[in-house]
């Protein structure tokens, strides 16, 4: 096995979501000076790169993923000067910074869209996707087709000014850009990419990276939910006809000129398709976020339809996300981000009795898998989902709100609403968006003022301050895992995966192999003791574990890593 080492392969990346990371001025909203004040928390953990979610100017309908100006900073987060300081302070600590690149759509408030909507003859009309209405048999105006938006309702919005609809795969104020137009693409390269590369950033996380190329026929999508008016339409906008041409152009024109890294959010994709994006020599992106693991149990067409999963499903997901690694492709390892609930709740056990132990178990799993490892703010201290009792008013995300409101509009029964609230509590993006719990003081030390979103009630028990000096804390355990991963990177970052107990519903045991070494990882995913069976020949020497003593029994949520000789 010849290993093709790269800085962005060995790196651990820590995602900062600015609204909830740290507030420096008491207005209840996280900000860039707040991030600067906590850089050592990230550095000491052992992270190498920071991914900062959108901090651009924005009306904040989708928390900054609706950008009104790529070249300025949302004033509540700070200024361009604050960004210079952030870049400088990150580099001074030997870390790097990547930003979020949101170029499938802008905010409706972006000046490009304001021009585009002003008249049918405006030079920027064609920068977005406009279509005339359809009329039904009764002569009622209807959207151009039946596509559903990811945030509920039609993906088309009627605009009075010119009597046409524009496409928005996400919120109404997130009109999709028309990538067919080369002037649009050039403007994006300049404003969204080059502007920030020239300021010294080290790469991008590329938002909805598989959606730029729409099937230009704009056909109705097949009806998969007969009781719904609008239908999932991935078929016509995911991995579309020109998507690879667009990525190659962007790489050639801009990204290739820098020593930059890119990671694209692509979701679910076949291996052949993945390799087109990340295959060495393709000149597109370095790696992708695939959703096999984070969306376990959810219907890929509608995340709020939740059917549950078992441990073999999780093993399949891990395999799917790693199978194409090698000289050809590269992958990512993650189980949290700003769009996902908390991993301890989803994949471990957030009962106070087990949450630290199961959090450590997950740390052992994630830090042993090949690919570039990503952590999301708060994951390192074991933040959990919000309490089940929180009413709908505490949920702020547009995805959650729109879905809930649509249910109300349809006249859903109390029972249906109660069932939805359960699923919402499990999978809502809000779970990741509560303020980071820094200490046990008021508002968890996140802000001196009232936070924009309620702090999780468990902050007196789960907070960073109480973990720094505790050798048994999750923070320090993650630290040890990240350092072991670095020390044996040929095994953990680059090694081959072999699962030993695929059908086992309770344990997850696998080997990681490099040319000359093998490690065995054994993880008990239950709250019961289980007999330990090595499932491999050879002498075992313990490298790491989340219990202080190991025996012939695997304790509840016990995980071990052994060298195999
Ligand atoms: C991506 C982002 C998500 C956002 C959406 C629209 O999926 O991660 O937060 O809502 O794109 O930009
Ligand atoms: Ca602030």
Query: Rg, please?
Result: 24 Å
CATH domain class of the largest domain: Alpha Beta
Proportion in helices: 25-40%
Q: What's the number of extended β-strand segments?
A: 24
Q: Helical element count?
A: 16
**Number of domain units:** 3
Sketch the major β-sheet: 8 strands, parallel
Shape: globular
- Bin the strand percentage: 15-25%
Poorly predicted parts: none
Bound compounds: alpha-D-glucopyranose, calcium ion
- What structural category characterises the helix and strand content? alpha/beta
Give a verbal description of the structure.
GO terms for molecular function: alpha-1,4-glucosidase activity; alpha-amylase activity; glucan 1,4-alpha-maltotriohydrolase activity; oligo-1,6-glucosidase activity; sucrose alpha-glucosidase activity. Residues 15-433 form the Glycosyl hydrolase family 13 catalytic domain. The protein is an alpha/beta fold. The chain has three domains: 7-105 and 182-390 and 430-474, Alpha-Beta Barrel (TIM Barrel); 111-167, Oligo-1,6-glucosidase, domain 2 (Alpha-Beta Complex); 496-564, Golgi alpha-mannosidase II (Immunoglobulin-like). It is built from 16 helices and 24 strands. It has an eight-stranded parallel sheet with strand order 13-12-11-5-2-1-17-16. Strand 19 (507-513) and strand 20 (518-524) form a beta hairpin. Helix 11 runs parallel beside helix 15. The longest helix is centred in the middle third of the chain and has 16 residues, at 182-197.
